[in-house]
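Aim 2 progress. For Transient receptor potential cation channel subfamily A member 1, the working sequence is reproduced below.
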Amino acid sequence: MALLRTFTMMLGELDFLGTFVQPYWGAGACGIQLPFRAPTFFFLVVFILFMPILLMNLLIGLAVGDIESVRRNAQLKRIAMQVELHSELERKLPRCFIAKVDKSHVVEYPNARNVCTTGILSWLLCGFRPMENKDGGEQWNPPEQLVLEELGKQKWRLRKLAGAIEDQTQLIRLIVQKMEIRTEADDCDEGRRDEEKKNQDSGDSRWKEQRMRMKLRSSSVCRSLNL
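Predicted structure tokens for this construct:
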């Protein structure tokens, strides 16, 4: 009974106690008992379960349909109001203005220059030019000039960083060659490795021979001077 009472309270204006509970126990106002107790409560339970579901779905469907119809009508009404506004403006504006504005086609000449218009614009914009000091230097630079200066500084920094990275790369290569550190790039076939080793040995021997010749020449020059 408590569960049924809770559901009936959710339904709204439904006198569950006076209509079903008191007649069920024979304690009604006129002392009349509830006839067909089982079918009555069965239909009551069915009503409590299905009525909220059907009612909510019906209300949601009506709300969605109403929203769509209101939106469509609002769009049509807005277009109609715009048409009325344009027609009112056309009636109130002078005919000479409408004849200049309302044209079926317009021809544009982008390369044509109007000297009068250009002179007026240059005269109007002359007040916005950068101010100059008495010494001839600019006191205020436009944003474009500042951007160009900043770009130049960034390019100089990038070039400096690129040079530093290149120097470090060369230094690392020399260190690796001096310490005879092998990397994955040095892994190759045996025949090719032997050829590279021979070439390297021949280059080292040539460099040593040239160094010895330079030492001999310097020693001979020193002896001749001493003599």
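The mean pLDDT is 72. This observation will guide construct design in the next reporting period.
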